[in-house]
Specification:
4 domains, six-stranded mixed β-barrel, 22 strands, elongated
């Protein structure tokens, strides 16, 4: 009996049943998709780093190296499992091309390497170690889609040519957030091509399980070993690998929460619509003695079945959608393992979502118990409130706008040139990197002097970076990568305090501040001449805390120019702005050509290009998530308004019939409904825009904070926020209103007589 009633209800209310199922499926799909992508990403990265045997501690070094000294240190450490020194032949981007694409505009430091002996292996798509033949080169897999490459294409280095034999996964440098990329060649080709570049070294250590990486880093520093370059740890490598696609997954998760709220609200009003339509049948069932519990159970059985169908559809849809969204992840990191566990987590997540929706359904169905059979049969009372029937339309509109705007605002923020102030980089127009030269300090001074003579340059500043030993207030030692120079010209975004303006001041990145457990006002000791026999520490007050995502988010800024600083330079950067910003492209091309012959150590690029090169992959991923949210938001709004307006029209059917009896036409009644609808749609759009900018900024801040970009503000695209989004939402609302108002034409004037 119950089965037949449910089947008959499905046939009589196909639209409502299908719509309910769709909402349940979309909610299940988005959460399932988030779990699937996150689980796949995490598992694939772990698998890649395990297969490649990623080092636990890596010190990059440009300059002379004493391998015997490093070997003695390694043997003296009980926590070292293996050690190796790997060469990296840094090449000028101007002399590199892949197929028909020049790398002159690349923001990456590109170079050659050979396959390592003990760990840190370059592997292919099948996780096999790659051993190139003479004349072959294996290209980083991230460049495959970036430049449209295929095996058999040619890589050119100056006048030399190598055949691209395939593509490699480099667990260290897969992500575009890693500033360097390694091309794998044979040992013979490496030696033959070595005159074309400048060699630096990767000093790598594989530590025993359970070893303290921070303690090892301090011991390495105290041993006075080579460290003219950044220090990288296993955890930092894993974070850089995960951030790009991880941001997209977090955005999808945020959208899934909003969709769950919308689904619960929509299903509630669909149930109320259904109960209004079934009012007389419900009254008759109550009159013949059907208990309240059985009556609620009858309706609930229907939604339980719809939930089961929606869950299966949602899971299937998540698996389908994950294929294109996860294509880049699979290319970079390979297929995920432990898929069985991931699928189980997807199912559990789906059960949780559907359980929340069904709980809402069960509570809504409880309204049947509050009305007696007599009231229902005589048409008295209602299963829903008579007031504010249009309010849910405004709420759903605001939620849809919010769901669309947050991903778009994140994308526009990361893609804007001003975002560099959250990256630990001042808001200049152009940057010049001086690295891998024989004498970085001399080269940097010469370039800076030339900037001072260029009339087109309105302002510039030279920043020198080195590694400094420090003592914290509690007596512990800590190694800091400090950028030394005038930080007042192009200041970064400070969360607290301000930039250092005196030699006894220092500013810390938020991650360093947290790890060192120091705040503004604390004092730390910095050794500016650690190589001296009687090194003295400079007492520095922490003057500011700033947001940073460069070099793993662990940096510091100081002004030691007049404090006798003798620390060797790791690199130098010149930030500058031009009198006429329109000349930036021409200016960059001119100086790029001029410095292309300077030993490959000077790189000139626009700040905007630096952001695109570093975060282009992330921006594209969030763009995909934003597109999904736009389509989902418009679709959900259309369906919801269609259903809600049908509820309104059904409840006011008697009033509309009476109006027709008095001579009002269907067009008159439709115009009145349209006016009432947009009285709530337009404020809903306004509230959604506000929520997408203000509360949405807080949510996005939590996401970007995982990258080290703290205390940020949205950099919005006015056209998208105040133009495109309102128009798209208004069009979706108008279409839903027009379609739903067709019901008005079916109302007859004589119906009011039967309703009275």
């Amino acid at each position: 009996m119950k089965k037949r009633l449910i089947i008959n209800d499905f046939k009589a209310n196909k639209l409502v049943s299908i719509s309910t199922c769709i909402f349940m499926a979309v909610s299940a799909m988005l959460l399932g998709l988030s779990i699937l992508l996150f689980g796949s990403l995490s598992s694939a990265i772990d698998g890649l780093m395990l297969e490649a045997k990623t080092p636990d501690f890596l010190q990059m070094h440009a300059g002379e190296i004493d391998e015997e000294q490093i070997a003695r240190f390694s043997k003296s450490r009980s926590d070292v499992e293996a050690m190796q020194v790997c060469g990296f032949l840094n090449l000028q981007n101007a002399q590199l091309s892949l197929a028909e694409s020049s790398l002159i505009n690349s923001t990456q430091d590109n170079g050659l390497c050979i396959q390592n002996e003990f760990f840190d292996f370059m592997i292919d798509a099948e996780n096999n170690r790659v051993e190139p033949e003479a004349g072959e080169v294996y290209v980083p897999v991230c460049y495959k889609s970036e430049y449209g490459l295929e095996a058999g294409d040619t890589m050119q280095i100056a006048s030399e040519k190598l055949r691209i034999a395939g593509f490699i996964r480099d667990s260290q440098m897969n992500s575009m957030m890693a500033s360097s990329k390694r091309f794998l060649v044979s040992e013979a080709d490496y030696e033959r091509l070595s005159p074309l570049g400048s060699e630096e070294y990767l000093i790598e250590f594989k530590l025993k399980e359970g070893s303290d990486t921070n303690a090892f880093a301090t011991a390495y520093e105290d041993a006075g070993l080579q460290k003219n370059g950044p220090t990288i740890t296993y955890s930092l490598i894993k974070m850089m690998n995960a951030l790009s696609d991880g941001m997209m997954i977090l955005v999808i998760l945020l959208v899934s929460v909003v969709v769950l709220f919308i689904s619960m609200l929509c299903i509630r009003y669909m149930i109320l619509t259904q109960l209004e339509k079934d009012k007389r049948e419900i009254g008759m069932l109550k009159a013949v003695g059907i208990s309240r519990r059985d009556l609620r159970g009858l309706y609930f059985s229907k939604y339980l079945l719809l939930s089961a169908i929606g869950s299966l559809v949602g899971l299937a849809a998540a698996l389908i959608v994950a294929r294109p969204l996860g294509a880049q992840m699979r290319e970079l990191y390979g297929d995920a393992g432990n898929m069985g566990i991931i699928y189980v987590l997807m199912i559990i997540g789906t059960i949780v979502v559907e359980g929340i929706i069904l709980l809402s359904v069960y509570r809504t169905l409880g309204k049947m118990e509050k009305m007696s059979a007599v009231d229902i049969l005589y048409g008295r009372g209602s299963f829903g409130r008579k007031k504010n029937l249009y309010l849910p339309i405004g709420i759903i509109t605001a939620a849809a706008v919010f769901m669309i705007l947050v991903p778009w605002n994140i994308k526009s923020t990361i893609g804007a040139p001003e975002f560099v102030t959250y990256m630990g980089i001042g808001e200049s127009q152009i940057r010049i990197d001086i690295r891998q030269t024989g004498d970085i300090e001399r080269s940097a001074k010469l370039v800076a002097e030339e900037m001072g003579r260029d009339d087109r340059v309105s302002d510039y500043t030279l920043m020198n970076t080195g590694s400094y030993k420090t003592l914290l207030p509690d007596g512990d030692s800590y190694n800091l990568m400090i950028e030394n120079g005038d930080h007042g010209k192009f200041p970064v975004r400070y969360i607290e305090g301000s930039y250092p303006s005196a030699a006894d001041e220092i500013a810390l990145s938020i991650l360093n501040s947290q790890e060192m457990n120091v705040v503004v006002g604390d004092t730390i000791q910095v050794y500016t001449d650690a190589g001296a026999a009687q090194a003295e520490a400079l007492s520095c007050r922490v003057c500011g805390i700033y947001s940073d995502v460069t070099n793993g988010g662990k940096t510091a800024k100081a002004a030691f120019a007049d404090a006798g600083d003798k620390t060797p330079l790791m690199w130098s950067i010149i930030y500058l702005s031009l009198e006429d910003e329109k000349l930036a492209d021409k200016w960059v091309e001119e100086y790029r050509a001029k410095y292309s012959s300077l030993d490959g150590g000077v790189k000139v690029l626009k700040i905007a290009d630096h952001v695109t090169g570093t975060y282009g992959q992330t921006i594209r991923n969030i763009q995909n998530a934003a597109t999904v949210s736009l389509i989902s938001g418009c679709f959900i709004l259309f369906v919801v308004m269609l259903l809600l307006l049908r509820l309104v029209i059904w409840r006011e059917r008697g009033d509309s019939s009476l109006k027709k009896a008095f001579g009002f036409t269907s067009a008159d009644i439709k115009a009145e409904y349209l006016k009432k609808t947009f009285i709530y749609v337009l404020p809903g759009i306004a509230v959604g825009i506000f929520a997408g900018i203000v509360p949405g900024q807080g949510l996005a801040g939590a996401l970007l904070g995982s990258m080290g970009a703290y205390g940020f503000r949205f950099i919005i695209d006015p056209l998208a926020v105040f133009g495109l989004t309102p128009v798209v939402i208004a069009v979706a609302a108008a279409l839903a209103t027009v379609v739903s108002l067709r019901e008005v034409g079916k109302i007859r004037a004589y119906e009011c007589l039967a309703a009275r």
